[in-house]
Design a protein that fits this description.
Number of helices: 3
Distance between the termini: 19 Å
Shape: flat
Strand content: under 5%
Largest sheet: none
Mean pLDDT: 92
Low-confidence stretches: none
Helix content: 25-40%
Radius of gyration: 13 Å
Length: 79
């Protein structure tokens, strides 16, 4: 059973700041383009709407596989 979405307001994003943040904090482990390879973390292309721990061929931790988060803007903001 999926975890309910958090009761949070997601602020308007800033594309430039988001790209800079992704490069600094996420790109070492993740790709975000279609067909991107898995690194230390799984590719993030298409992650919105996907259940946590379900990308085929990636070895997730048990806690990630059992989290049952369906990724949304609210879950991602909280994460």
């Amino acid at each position: 059973m999926p975890i309910p979405e958090p009761d949070v307001e997601v602020p308007e994003g800033d594309v430039k700041k988001g790209a800079k943040l992704f490069k600094a904090k996420c790109a070492q482990c993740h790709t975000c383009e279609k067909g991107g390879n898995a690194k230390q973390g799984p590719p993030l292309y298409g992650v919105m709407g996907r259940t946590s721990g379900t990308y085929d061929g990636f070895a997730y931790s048990e806690s990630n596989k059992n989290a049952a988060i369906v990724w949304s803007d609210k879950h991602m903001f909280e994460y």
